[in-house]
Design brief:
Blueprint: E1 2-4, H1 5-10, E2 13-20, E3 34-46, E4 52-65, E5 72-85, H2 87-93, E6 94-96, E7 99-101, H3 103-112, E8 128-129, E9 132-133, H4 147-157
């Protein structure tokens, strides 16, 4: 997303209300499979000493894999961005003298909103499956190979 710095020179504050798209390159090495309806709203302000202050709301839908079934699910999110961009950052990220690209700042805030795990089911309904079993700490199931050893250990305690 490009910010027109000429607007900021002519006025101290201007409003932003845009839809943003991210290329598939961004999704590599993340849990995010796709993004939909990403909208940035808020204000860009001119600060002291040529700083730019972003006060934005970023909202949209992430497409993530279900933690249990691995099917693709929509995960709505909202992120508040309050960030000051100083002169050094401006020098690095300006494409030209008149615009500033804040795509990386937006992406960083989206990545921060990714949940550790997400599922449409609130509780696990399956306690076992092909090659796996959910075990409870309180329920001890003794491996048949160690049954004799367990008996000897219990006799030794008496």
């Amino acid at each position: 997303m490009q910010i027109d710095l000429r607007k900021l020179l002519s006025q101290d504050v201007f409003s932003v209300d845009e839809e943003v798209n991210f290329s598939e390159e961004y999704f590599k090495n993340t849990a995010i499979k796709n993004l939909k309806n990403i909208r940035v709203q808020g204000e860009v302000l001119s600060g002291i000493d040529n700083e730019i202050i972003l006060s934005l709301t970023l909202k949209g839908i992430m497409v993530l894999e279900d933690a249990y079934s691995l099917e693709l699910l929509d995960y709505p999110f909202i992120s508040q961005i309050e960030q000051t961009i100083d002169k050094d950052y401006l020098k690095k990220s300006q494409n030209s003298e008149n615009s500033l690209d804040i795509t990386e700042i937006l992406w960083q805030n989206i990545v921060l909103e990714v949940p550790i795990s997400y599922s449409k089911d609130k509780q696990v309904t399956a306690l076992s499956g092909e090659g796996w079993e959910l075990k409870d700490e309180n329920t001890k199931k003794i491996d048949s190979r160690f049954a004799k050893l367990t008996e000897l250990l219990e006799k030794g305690k008496e």
